[in-house]
Amino acid sequence: MGYEFWYWNGIPGRGEFVRLALEAGGIPYRDCAREEAAGPSGLVADMIADRTHPPFAPPYLVADGMTIAQTANILLFLGERHGLAPADLSGRLWVNQIQLTIADMVAEAHDVHHPIASELYYEEQKTEARRRAEHFRGHRMPKFLGYFERVLTNDDGWVGAPRWTYADLSLYHLVDGLLYAFPKRMSTLAHHYPRVMALHERVSKLPELQAYLSSGRRLPWGDGVFRHYQELDAK
């Protein structure tokens, strides 16, 4: 049956970074919260179950008696065990570093539409969200994308190896989320970062991902980390 993977059903969210690695790596897994008998209540029940190393929140992976939480931590484990990262320590640490930087940008993208508190509805913090969005579009998006453009110097166009790694899959998903949430801004920025955009295109065409990307298991954008609000986007 492979690994047990737990994340909220209905949104791609942070769990999608893990799904992409599992799918592209051909790694058997159960998407447990999406099974009919589980659902949100099943996820919560499993998450708070008595275990040696409990997760704080999903996503988490149950593998060989271990519970591995935090997106970058899960990917570090999968990368080493299943060849989704370089074989040498330096390379594995580099790919993990890129993943952690992606996680930083994901957190900032989320905080654009929830700048005060996650517990509050967007409608309760729209004024603050507009201010946060202006700063994110004008300063943070160019800074992060500029960094990713700078590190994509591999002759093959990948982050840090002769072939793709989980960090390449994650950078693809990050850019895909930005294109959904900020289409106007990305239309202005994209030509400044040709390597980043080329990687996004290259990953979208990976043979290892085609069955998943064209299936109903690939959840559409909507609520979650990346959200499109017209008033938060501008060129």
Write the layout of secondary structure elements.
Elements: E1 3-6, H1 15-24, E2 29-31, H2 39-47, E3 60-63, E4 66-69, H3 71-82, H4 89-113, H5 126-151, H6 166-181, H7 183-189, H8 194-204, H9 210-213
Helix pairs in contact: 1-3, 1-6, 3-4, 4-5, 4-6, 6-7, 6-8
Give the helices and strands as they follow along the chain: EHEHEEHHHHHHH
CATH topology value of the largest domain:
Glutathione S-transferase Yfyf (Class Pi), Chain A, domain 2
Class based on secondary structure composition and strand pairing = alpha+beta
Name of the CATH first level of the largest domain: Mainly Alpha
Number of helices: 9
Helical percent range? 40-55%
CATH architecture of the largest domain: Up-down Bundle
Largest sheet: 4 strands, mixed
Strand order of the largest sheet: 2-1-3-4
Q: How many whole angstroms does the radius of gyration measure?
A: 18 Å
End-to-end C-alpha gap = 47 Å
Low-confidence stretches: none
Find the count of extended strands (DSSP E, 2+ residues): 4
Q: Whole-number average pLDDT? A: 94
Report the sheet-strand fraction. Answer: 5-15%
Question: Can you describe this structure?
Answer:
This protein has 235 residues and is of the alpha+beta class. It has 2 domains: 3-82, Glutaredoxin, CATH 3.40.30.10; 89-232, Glutathione S-transferase Yfyf (Class Pi), Chain A, domain 2 (Up-down Bundle). It has helices spanning 15-24, 39-47, 71-82, 89-113, 126-151, 166-181, 183-189, 194-204, 210-213; strands at residues 3-6, 29-31, 60-63, 66-69. It has a 4-stranded mixed sheet with strand order 2-1-3-4, covered by helices on one side. α4 runs antiparallel to α5. The longest helix is centred in the middle third of the chain and has 26 residues, at 126-151. It is globular. 35% of the residues are buried.
